[in-house]
């Protein structure tokens, strides 16, 4: 009997699949079952009117919020001027233009063990200094490879860094963030200051990030503050044969008629951090393919990271302390995940131990006797 029922069900299923009208009717029923009416659909007309009024208030609130972020940008500009003398002094110490005083070099450790270690290091350092005086060894100037060390340490930047970029970044003296003026469209500029080098004649390479802080007329409720909408790089004046963003390849071509072979050289794009200064252009209609959108979004993220993290906290990324802060939360999540797995395994073991031999089923936790 069961076989006859299953066979009948199979025939009905085949008929439905072969009949488009029946299939459409079935799909319509499924849609009606899965469709969950929104709150607005269930409201009386008079209440809907009032909800629409609340939406209009929300739009006005979004525009006020936009003004708030404009004032925040003005405040950032004001405090950037207060930070800059400190950043200028940082640049001078890194480049070796100035030597900090003994008082400025004192650093109070929070841990006694580190203080003891520091004392030992001081003793060793004094011994090493005396040896250096004897051998007349040259003392390094400033803090060598300061910015290059940061590039190597931060994953987001090291992914862009190529081996042929490193000799150039050794000449990087400073990175600055410059905010747009009061009467200019909202933006910020990253300035990469280089010392004289054999690769290009520019002393400063710039990247401008254009921002928007106003609700989208078509989707005002999506507004969550200023967002980067475009970026603009700069022209790098490479010396001949020093452009690391391109590579020269040789290709052999054979003439179809004469059979002669010639070698043609041409330049093709090459992976390099310095492609950062030649970003994807956003078209007037704003349409980009999926890969371009991802590349541009990554570019915006990197620009924001330079502005918010790298430039203000450079020394902590050099020492690695900022990296520990960035990674600590992820490490805690992994530890919690491992603990959860262990808890799940122990729960499974307990469930197996509480197996009900009468019913042939494991008892739910709430049914277990305490």
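^ Assign residues to that structure.
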């Amino acid at each position: 009997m069961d076989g006859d029922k299953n066979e009948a069900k199979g025939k009905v299923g085949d008929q439905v699949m072969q009949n488009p009208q029946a299939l459409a009717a079935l799909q319509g029923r499924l849609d009606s079952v899965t469709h969950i009416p929104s709150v607005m659909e269930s409201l009386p007309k008079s209440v809907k009117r009032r909800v629409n009024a609340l939406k209009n208030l929300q739009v006005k609130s979004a525009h006020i919020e936009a003004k708030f972020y404009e004032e925040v940008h003005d405040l950032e500009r004001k405090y950037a001027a207060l930070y800059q003398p400190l950043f200028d002094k940082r640049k001078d110490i890194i480049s070796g233009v100035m030597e900090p005083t003994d008082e400025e070099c004192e650093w109070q450790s929070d841990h006694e063990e580190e203080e003891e270690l520091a004392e030992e290091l001081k003793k060793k350092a004094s011994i090493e200094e005396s040896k250096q005086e004897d051998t007349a060894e040259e003392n390094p100037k400033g803090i060598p490879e300061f910015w290059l060390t940061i590039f190597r340490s931060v994953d987001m930047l090291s992914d862009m860094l190529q081996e042929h970029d490193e000799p150039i970044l050794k000449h990087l003296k400073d990175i600055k963030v410059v905010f747009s003026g009061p009467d200019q469209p909202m933006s910020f500029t990253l300035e990469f200051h280089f010392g004289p080098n054999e690769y290009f004649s520019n002393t400063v390479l710039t990247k401008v990030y254009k921002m928007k802080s106003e609700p989208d007329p078509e989707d005002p409720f999506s507004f969550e503050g200023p967002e980067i909408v475009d970026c603009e790089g700069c022209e790098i004046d490479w010396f001949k044969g020093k452009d690391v963003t391109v590579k020269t390849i040789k290709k052999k071509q054979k003439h179809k008629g004469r059979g002669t072979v010639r070698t043609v050289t041409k330049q093709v794009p090459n992976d390099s951090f310095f492609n950062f200064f030649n970003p994807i252009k956003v078209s007037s209609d704003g349409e980009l393919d999926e890969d371009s959108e991802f590349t541009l979004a990554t570019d915006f993220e990197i620009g924001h990271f330079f502005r918010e993290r790298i430039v203000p906290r450079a020394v902590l990324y050099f020492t690695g302390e900022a990296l520990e802060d960035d990674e600590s939360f992820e490490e805690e999540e992994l530890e919690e995940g491992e603990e959860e797995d262990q808890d799940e395994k122990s729960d499974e073991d307990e469930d197996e131990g509480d197996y009900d031999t009468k019913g042939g089923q494991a008892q739910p936790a709430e049914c277990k006797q305490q």
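The first strand starts at residue 172 and ends at 179.
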